[in-house]
Amino acid sequence: METLEIKKPLTGTTIDPLIQKRWSPRAFSQELIPEETMNSIFTAASWAPSAMNEQPWQYIYAERGTPAFDRLWDCLVEGNQPWTKDAAVIFVALYNRYYERNGRVNRNAAHDLGMANAQLLLQAASQDVYGHILGGFDADQLIDTLELSDDQVPFCMGVLGYLGNPDDLEEPYRSRERAKRSRKELNEFVTKL
Ligand SMILES: Cc1cc2nc3c(=O)[nH]c(=O)nc-3n(C[C@H](O)[C@H](O)[C@H](O)COP(=O)(O)O)c2cc1C
Fold it and tell me: What is the mean pLDDT of residues 92-116?
């Protein structure tokens, strides 16, 4: 509860409570995520907009305590390994490089995967499941591990789980778990012409 208060966005403007609720934790409880909840989370991702409704995203995931989880976890960079081992789920978010309809390169695919990820994270938060997206992984190792084709681009990985106790984390992760979140001011990234 204390962590939730610390992580709440400090903003003078009203934003949706679900957006306020989402953040990227490192401390996860041991609880696994029911399949029904995972299906809601992936269904929410599938309703993201995408160029030509191509839906170029793919998710490959594994549950903690399985050899598949360990194989995916092994692909993470060192700094991401200590705190992700307790997550309930580890996943890979991929996009298809080529349009199914004509075989051309889909230049919108990374954007569309990001949209799907955002919806995935918000749906998860609405069910008290928190996600942490991870760019720190060895892509070549992951491609080998999953025997991915040239069409399948593993853009990022991520973990999902219920919130745990920050005291169980080692440093520097414990301090990060208690640090306030921050964002740029609107005038740093919004221009009204
Ligand atoms: C594409 C992407 C890659 C990321 N890679 C990592 C990572 O490798 N390790 C990590 O601890 N966090 C990673 N993050 C999480 C960000 O650090 C985090 O979203 C950011 O600090 C904002 O915090 P918030 O999600 O709690 O609002 C990544 C996030 C994104 C979207």
Answer: 98
pLDDT, the chain, mean: 96
Q: Is the CB of 9 under 6 A from ligand 1?
A: no
CATH code of the domain occupying 2-188: 3.40.109.10
Domain layout of the chain by residue ranges: 2-188
Task: Give the residue, 75 or 6, on which the prediction is more confident.
Answer: 75
What dihedral angle (degrees, nearest 10) is formed by the CA atoms of 13, 113, 56, 142?
Answer: -170
Q: Which residue has the higher pLDDT, 80 or 10?
A: 80
d(CA 163, CA 180): 17
Ligand 1 contacts CB of residue 135 (under 6 A): yes
Neighbours of 15 (CB within 10 A): 9
Residue nearest to atom 7 of ligand 1 (CA): 134
